[in-house]
């Protein structure tokens, strides 16, 4: 027989027969009908059924926006000084899974690090960059070191090449910075803390990008914040230095990073594309929004005013970031930077600042691809 075989039928399941008809009897079996039950809780948190009780919401939402909304605003903490006897060691990478991230965020030391970042943000609140502040010898030394790194860029021109990203001359710059890193650390360390150089150097050298990939992103920026936190735990920089750490040190660091990005065409590391806050940075938006809290005239929507940007970018980090983005990206701002455009609709800078702190915790500090490169030693312990 050449009859074609009927296609195989799917195996019957417990859910194969439904009485979804609004009529009183089922057209298939003649049995009484009923409306379907409400859908089960969806893993897509953009839709949460009204009947679904809030107490049973999933604990780890996959939707980033929901995660940010539910995250408490991080609070400032006083840095806990590292107590002798010291056991300095070369810090290592440990994080490799989401479980490690959960463990990290339950760690007192890491909570103290995040509290330090918030303290830096609070120290610059309602201050212009040029406002007078306490500038210690340690702060001056750090600024001098970054100035030397800027000079290295001028001495190492980009190599001729046609690739859009990743000029190989950056590796020469990175090698030179790395070879001088220990001597830079010793400029900051008293005789009893000289052994700390072995732990400080890796944080420092990882603050300026990756030499093999020739890229830079928020993970490297976080390493720079971690390096400053290590200095704070060693009491090389103190609380009275915090405003200067933002207005003098971080501003100089940002100057260096922009020069490196433009000169050597560093690739954005782990960029979210147009849906990210910025291709390279996050912290200057946090510090910059804090600067503008309670400003009489400038509101979040002021980023669209070219006169304001031209006149005040040198005094406010947030505005300087907007100017830089407009310089390197062409087209409509709302198209190449939709997230920053959305933020400009927030009513005040305090809400912007608290939202960015929450976003930093969720989008940077809770992401395995970023935090897998974070280092742990005796100063920032894995607990």
TrEMBL record:
GO cellular component: cytoplasm; nucleus; protein phosphatase type 2A complex
EC number: 5.2.1.8
GO annotation, biological process: mitotic spindle organization
Residues making up the signal peptide according to the UniProt record: none
Enzyme class: isomerase
Record field: catalytic activity: [protein]-peptidylproline (omega=180) = [protein]-peptidylproline (omega=0)
InterPro entries linked to this entry: Phstyr_phstse_ac (IPR004327), PTPA_C_lid (IPR043170), PTPA_sf (IPR037218)
Taxonomy, superkingdom: Eukaryota
Alphabetic keyword roster: Cytoplasm, Isomerase, Rotamase
Claim: Cytoplasm is one of the keywords in the record: yes
GO molecular function, one term: protein tyrosine phosphatase activator activity
Cell compartments where the protein resides: Cytoplasm
The family this protein is said to belong to: Belongs to the PTPA-type PPIase family.
Function: PPIases accelerate the folding of proteins. It catalyzes the cis-trans isomerization of proline imidic peptide bonds in oligopeptides.
Protein name: Serine/threonine-protein phosphatase 2A activator
Organism for this UniProt entry: Coffea arabica
Designated gene of the protein: LOC113716958
């Amino acid at each position: 027989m050449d009859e074609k075989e009927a296609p195989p039928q799917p195996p019957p399941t417990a859910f194969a027969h439904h009485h979804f008809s609004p009529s009183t009897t089922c057209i298939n079996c003649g049995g009484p009908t009923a409306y379907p039950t409400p859908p089960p809780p969806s893993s897509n948190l953009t839709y949460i059924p009204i009947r679904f009780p809030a107490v049973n919401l999933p604990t780890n939402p996959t939707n980033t926006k929901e995660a940010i909304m539910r995250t408490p605003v991080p609070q400032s903490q006083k840095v806990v000084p590292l107590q002798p006897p010291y056991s300095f060691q070369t810090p290592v990478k440990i994080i490799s899974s989401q479980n490690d991230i959960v463990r990290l965020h339950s760690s007192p030391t890491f909570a103290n690090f995040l509290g330090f970042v918030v303290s830096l943000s609070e120290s610059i609140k309602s201050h212009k960059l040029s406002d007078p502040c306490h500038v210690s010898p340690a702060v001056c030394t750090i600024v001098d070191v970054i100035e030397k790194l800027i000079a290295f860029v001028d001495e190492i021109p980009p190599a001729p090449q046609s690739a859009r990203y990743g000029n190989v001359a950056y590796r020469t710059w990175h090698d030179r910075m790395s070879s001088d890193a220990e001597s830079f650390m010793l400029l900051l360390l008293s005789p009893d803390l000289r052994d700390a150089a072995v732990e400080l150097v890796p944080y420092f050298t990882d603050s300026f990008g990756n030499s093999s990939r020739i890229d830079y992103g928020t993970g490297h920026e976080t390493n720079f914040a971690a390096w400053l936190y290590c200095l704070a735990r060693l009491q090389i920089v103190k609380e009275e230095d915090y405003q200067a750490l933002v207005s003098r040190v971080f501003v100089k660091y940002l100057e260096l990073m922009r020069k490196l990005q433009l000169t050597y065409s560093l690739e954005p590391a782990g960029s979210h594309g147009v849906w990210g806050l910025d291709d390279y940075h996050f912290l200057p938006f946090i510090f910059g929004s804090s600067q503008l809290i309670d400003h009489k005239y400038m509101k979040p929507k002021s980023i669209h005013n070219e006169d304001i940007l031209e006149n005040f970018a040198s005094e406010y980090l947030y505005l300087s970031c907007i100017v830089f983005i407009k310089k390197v990206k062409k087209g409509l701002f709302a198209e190449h930077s939709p997230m920053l455009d959305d933020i400009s609709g927030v009513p005040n800078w305090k809400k912007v600042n608290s939202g960015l702190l929450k976003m930093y915790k969720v989008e940077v500090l809770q992401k395995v691809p970023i935090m897998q490169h974070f280092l742990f030693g005796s100063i920032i312990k894995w607990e």
